[in-house]
Write a structure and sequence with these properties.
This protein has 13 helices and 38 strands. It is an alpha+beta fold. It folds into four domains: 123 residues, Immunoglobulins (Immunoglobulin-like); 312 residues, Transglutaminase-like (Coagulation Factor XIII, Chain A, domain 2, Alpha-Beta Complex), CATH 3.90.260.10; 112 residues, Immunoglobulins (Immunoglobulin-like, Sandwich), CATH 2.60.40; 95 residues, Immunoglobulin-like. A hairpin with an 8-residue loop joins strand 34 and strand 35. It starts with 7 loop residues before the first strand and ends with a strand. It catalyses: L-glutaminyl-[protein] + L-lysyl-[protein] = [protein]-L-lysyl-N(6)-5-L-glutamyl-[protein] + NH4(+).
Length: 687
């Protein structure tokens, strides 16, 4: 080679188009494995003579760990290793098509070339990603529309609320924006696995299953100074309330800017959304999944125990819990370690709930294995199976005597309306039947028994617990809470307690009722209301008792999750207790977005956001937060003056779209009385 450093033309536009990487805004070549890319360089004296290329990645590249390859020019691309095919040459330059193996380690590579006996000359660096469009890749996804959604789509919808009342909000994954790819590469290099043994860690980066597990640990801050610090206390001083984020970009950028200090704070959907961003960025097809009435079974007995006192207050006793909803991820890849039927969607969960292998990581658990009760297969099948299948046991606990009495058990409570966003549309798709057979069917119970057997739990109950108290008696009455009227923050909450006498003689019932504000994990925060009454029910009679909780009663106590748990513990004279409970999620008032005029690439367009204060009091500390990939850089924050009762505010701001196509604008409005009113609008940007 000549003494001068060769100059390289990476053909960024053409290669990016071929490799589905055009959305990255990078001066560096970004390509996908198992597919050829073309480069041209000059500075070679005899370009077609004995050129040898070297690609290397990681701290100590070697052929043994497949982090280094040397290859010369061949007539055809190799199916196995790296290869180079001559495309064209002149006296001063040469065009080469380089192919990587479909199972190459992903990450940043250094490329150099040498000719004859001269020392190698660097051609520069490029980034190699997973390739879901390539049939040889572990992440191959045959449906092109699914590749578009689960790898290339930067907008998502996350489902929240509870199983009786599902709501949702938009999220800006933003995996192609700014510096996100470099941040994702540095996440891999800061994991415990890399710190303990960098050479082995990098050599495993050909495997989506390995990286999925490592990244599920790195997205939470436990163990490894990872990206997001969880907080489920209801108090978020010193950080941002988890409900206030609208995208992953701000979180990942903050983590990098702070010198890789965990970002405060996250809850389950934040961990899941950030993991989606990272995995989509690296080329692993990924989506968020919401499980309603999700069990956190801390002791691995596929059973969740809940305790109540005589007044009907839910007690914080025991480590098990049921969350109104929980959000995790599914990623698509093969499971060579388990066999072909276990390939496809794999559950990963970055929320730090239980340790696995000594650190807070979860998955990949094959979704097929979960459905079939194969809880002994790698990884964390027992925990995920319990999240969607655990049985619930409700106990009355007397703190004076330590005595616990079973009120009732339920096997159909957990794992409802498992939800994800549709491909190419903003609708909800129910995937419950992919996780379990129909609730209450013989097949579903058989799978549950199979799972218990694999865990060495006997057929009925936990063998360590005393038997006598676990015998369920038949109740004399039944009860339920019905919602009467709307469930909106700022309005009174109207409920009906419906009690029915199941016996043919009259029954006297003493009812103790409470209402608590909770987090979405059903953790109690503030008591809102309590009441008691004594009622007599004639034989087979059904009676309704109206309950009204006024807005001023709950306004101060409500958490930003806007959830309330109401319970009625019914003490039937000479009979057993009956527990009636309901978790209620309130809706925020609406907010409206209008795009004024046509949205064109690189042209200003005005957007108007309108909000009407629905309550009979002033609201203050109003803030509007706006973001959207390809519509604006980062997050725009606007302060809005206080609004009197029933007053309407209208706020205008400008966008300069950077790319054509349907783009999602996300808006979040907060004030002292309403937290995080979110909405989104599709902006059709034209050239």
């Amino acid at each position: 080679l000549a003494a001068t450093q060769p100059s390289t033309n990476w053909h960024l536009k053409e290669n990016a188009r071929e490799h589905h990487t055009s959305k990255f805004s990078s001066e560096e070549l970004i390509v996908r494995r198992g597919q050829a890319f073309t480069i041209t360089f000059n500075g070679a004296e005899r370009p077609d003579q004995n050129l040898i290329f070297v690609v290397e990645t990681g701290p100590k590249p070697s052929k043994a760990t497949k982090t280094l390859a040397t290859f010369d020019i061949s007539s055809t691309a190799s199916k196995e290793g790296w290869s180079a095919v001559l495309q064209a040459s002149t006296s001063s330059s040469v065009s080469i098509s380089i192919s990587s193996p479909h199972n190459a380690v992903i990450g940043r590579y250094r490329l150099s070339v040498q000719s004859g006996s001269s020392s190698p000359a660097s051609l520069g660096t490029f980034v190699l990603l997973f390739n879901p469009w390539n049939s040889g890749d572990d992440v191959f996804l045959p449906d092109k529309a699914e590749c578009e959604e689960y790898v290339l789509e930067e907008f998502g919808i996350i489902f929240v609320g509870n199983k009786n009342h599902i709501s949702s909000f938009g999220w800006n994954f933003g995996q192609f924006q700014g510096d996100i790819l470099n941040i994702c590469l540095s996440i891999m290099d800061r994991s415990l696995y890399y710190r303990q043994d960098p050479v082995t860690d990098v050599s495993h980066r050909h495997s989506p299953a390995y990286l999925g597990r490592v990244l599920s640990a790195m997205v939470n801050a436990n163990d490894d100074q990872g990206v997001v610090l969880g907080n489920w206390s209801g108090k978020y001083e010193g950080g941002k309330n988890p409900t206030s984020w609208t995208g992953s970009g701000e979180i990942l950028q903050s983590w990098k800017k702070s010198g890789f200090k965990p970002v405060k704070y996250g809850q389950c959907w934040v961990f899941a959304a950030v993991l989606t961003t990272v995995l989509r960025c690296l080329g692993i097809p990924t989506r968020t999944i919401t499980n309603f009435s999700s069990a956190h079974d801390a002791d691995g007995n596929l059973r969740v125990d809940e305790f109540y006192d005589a007044d009907g207050n839910h007690l914080e006793k025991g480590a098990d819990s049921v969350w109104n909803f929980h959000v995790w991820n599914e990623s698509w890849f093969t499971r060579k370690d388990l066999g072909p039927s276990y390939s496809g969607w794999q559950v990963l969960d970055a929320t730090p709930q239980e340790q696995s292998g000594g650190i807070y990581q979860c998955g990949p658990a094959s979704r097929y294995a979960i459905k079939e009760g194969e809880v002994d297969l790698d990884y964390d099948g027992t925990f995920v199976f319990a999240e969607v299948n655990a049985d619930c046991m409700y106990w009355n606990y007397d703190s004076a005597t330590g005595k616990k009495t079973l009120i009732f058990s339920k096997s159909t409570e957990i794992g409802a309306s498992i939800s994800t966003k549709a491909v190419g549309r903003d609708n909800r798709v129910d995937v419950t039947s992919d996780y379990k057979y129909e609730e209450g069917s013989a097949k579903e119970r058989d799978v549950f028994k199979k799972a218990r057997k694999k865990l060495g739990l006997e057929d009925k109950f936990d063998p360590t617990a005393p038997k006598l108290e676990e015998i369920e008696q038949k109740p004399d009455i039944s009860g339920k809470f019905k919602v009467a009227g709307s469930l909106e923050v700022g309005k009174d909450l109207n409920l009906l307690l419906v009690l029915e006498n199941l016996q043919s003689e009259a029954k006297t019932v003493n009812v103790n009722m409470t209402a608590w504000s909770t987090l979405y994990t059903r953790r109690k925060v503030n008591q809102i209301w309590k009441d008691s009454m004594s009622v007599t029910l004639a034989p087979k009679e059904e009676k309704q008792f109206p309950i009204k909780i006024k807005y001023p009663e709950y306004q101060q106590q409500l958490t930003t999750d806007k959830t309330i748990q109401v319970t009625a513990l019914c003490h039937v004279e000479n009979g057993i207790q009956v527990l009636v409970k309901r978790n209620i999620t309130l809706d925020n008032p609406a907010i409206d977005i209008q795009v004024l005029g046509e949205a064109k690439v690189n042209k200003e367009v005005v957007v108007e956001v309108a909000f009407t204060n629905p309550i009979a009091a002033e609201v203050k500390d109003c803030v509007l937060q706006v973001e959207g990939s390809d519509l604006l850089q980062g997050v725009l924050e606007l302060r809005i003056p206080p609004l009197k009762a029933s007053e309407k505010s209208s706020t205008k701001f400008k966008l300069i779209p950077s790319e054509a196509g349907p783009k999602h604008l996300l808006v979040n409005f907060s004030c002292d009385k309403f937290a995080d009113i979110k909405t989104f609008k599709v902006v059709n940007v034209i050239n």
